[in-house]
Amino acid sequence: MERIQNYLGGEFKDSMTGDFMEVYEPAVGLVYGSMPRSTQDDVHFAVDQAVKASDSWAALAPDARSKWLIRIAEAIEHNADQLAKAESKDTGKPITLAKQLDIPRAAANFRFFATSILHSHTPAHHTNAGIFNYTNRHPVGVAGCISPWNLPLYLLTWKIAPALATGNCVVAKPSEITPMTAYLLSGICERINFPKGVINIIHGPGPTTGEAIVTHPDVSAISFTGGTQTGRRIASLAAPSFKKVSLEMGGKNPNIIFDDCNLEAAIDITIKSSFTNQGQICLCGSRVFVQKGIYKKFRTALVESARNLQPSDPSDPNTKMGALSSKPHLKKVLGYIELAKSEGGKILTGGNRVHLKERCKDGYFMQPTIVEGLDNRCRTNQEEIFGPVISLIPFSEEEEVVAMANDSGYGLSATIWTENLSRAHRVSKSLKCGVVWVNCWLVRDLRTPFGGMKQSGVGREGGEEALRFFTEAQNVCLKI
Ligand code: NAD
Q1: Catalytic site residues?
Q2: Which residues of the chain have pLDDT under 50?
Q3: Is the CB of residue 146 below 6 angstroms from any atom belonging to ligand 1?
Q4: Whole-angstrom Cα distance, residue 95 to residue 221?
Q5: Residue closest by Cα to atom 20 of ligand 1
Q6: Domain check: are 293 and 171 in the same one?
Q7: Is the CB of residue 176 below 6 angstroms from any atom belonging to ligand 1?
Q8: 34, 58, 373 from 30: Cα distances, Å
């Protein structure tokens, strides 16, 4: 059994009560470890450690902080195999995906912000003769970073790295469903003698450990990624004390496929944008709008490709589809299949749980699923499923599809498939979402603003946006 501990003030600790939670391996459906069920007292201790370390970390010159972050990135790269195996075991994602996406991106997050702070600048304004203004950017102090289970190390480090780079100390809480790689990151910090108290990683459930971070008076900013309901709760808890809040939440992303697209590429990437990580990426498309001229051809090819993509043991390097993250989540996703049927949807392929053989016989696997025949307004097409389930919807005109794509409470991302450049620009501009990919998906440049509109997000991450979020601007007006 693996024993995960908190990392507070540079030391490993259980929760003060000794209470713990079980950690599951989704591909086998069994407990493989435990983690602390941290209480408010543990969180208070964590924040105290961060406060104590704040002044000296903030006082370091950017190039010194940069060197520390580069050391973390190097250590992640050095331990990439161990981290990828742990991520795959903890989440059920294919080991190859963890090796190619999750772990390299975690290292890249540290490298990116380590170097960003060496090149960023603040503005100066010449007001009139003898007067000018310049802007300081001060760290907020202690930042609370709360992340979900779908891309555990990738998303946790996407928050920790800019917070540290800008001179803040961090109290970070990974998802209680996938705590392992955050624990391994704690080990990395200890091994490289990272300054004590600057990074504190605390484990526990959202409503207790998470809320204790959000409501702590010495935590000045909360960076959260997770579900929209949780984001709403965090926003309401943080509002009375005017904390800075960045919320990256759910989505119900449209893929818009026009008649004039490169059909082969559109099918190939739509399979990826639907089923990568078992459809458990906030950027996965779930409503696939296809123009009527190519609808039948597209549907036939998509269904055939989905049938060829069957789940198997995530520890096998050839596996392309693994297990869903937890038993309750599998149940929720299968519940949406029943809902889709009751709303009149036809299951073109998939729709069932899969029992693999031997060690994976009780794992949380399900088939990639394509549904057809549902109206855009029905619950299946409006609520976030967050699993390997997509809904095909035919359309005739550009205006019609833009209206349907925007007819959602969410507004995270979209893909557009067309060879018509003017249309690509026009449709992109009219979509009410934070990220649009034209003829591609999940191509990331860490300098770009990342986040959602409507119920998908408040604020943006990435590049300058993240550096701004974790700092307070101070204008100095100088008369000479
Ligand atoms: P979740 O909201 O249940 O949990 C996310 C994190 O918040 C976890 O660490 C959890 O412990 C914590 N938490 C839960 N309740 C809390 C509370 N009351 N106070 C403080 N913290 C609390 O989300 P999840 O199920 O882990 O992740 C799936 C969701 O995340 C999906 O909705 C998905 O779309 C979203 N997501 C969004 C993005 C994005 O960038 N927009 C990226 C990945 C995932």
Answers
A1: 248, 282
A2: none
A3: yes
A4: 34
A5: 210
A6: no
A7: yes
A8: 12, 43, 37
Q: Are residues 257 and 244 in the same domain?
A: no
Specify whether the CB–CB gap between 10 and 36 falls below 8 A: no
State whether 54 and 115 are in the same domain: yes
What is the tally of structural domains in the chain? 2
> What would the pLDDT profile of 396-409 be if each residue is shown by its tens digit?
999 999 999 999 99
Domain identity same for 177 and 309: no
CA distance 393 to 35: 43
Strands 413-417 and 253-257: parallel
Checking 65-69 for CB contacts under 8 A at 24+ apart, the result is: 65/114, 65/117, 65/164, 65/165, 65/167, 66/114, 66/115, 66/117, 66/118, 66/165, 67/114, 68/114, 68/164, 68/194, 68/195, 69/110, 69/111, 69/113, 69/114, 69/161, 69/164, 69/165
Q: Which of 452, 367, 456, 404 is nearest to 257 (CA)?
A: 404
Distance CA 300, CA 359 (A): 34
310 shares a domain with 194: no
Whether the Cβ atoms of residue 66 and residue 72 lie closer than 8 Å to each other = no
Q: Which atom of ligand 1 lies at the shortest distance from residue 173's CA?
A: 9
Same domain, 443 and 471: no
DSSP reduced 3-state for 5: coil
pLDDT at position 129 is: 85
Ligand 1 atom with the smallest distance to the CA of 456 is 41
Domain span at 76: 2-249+456-479
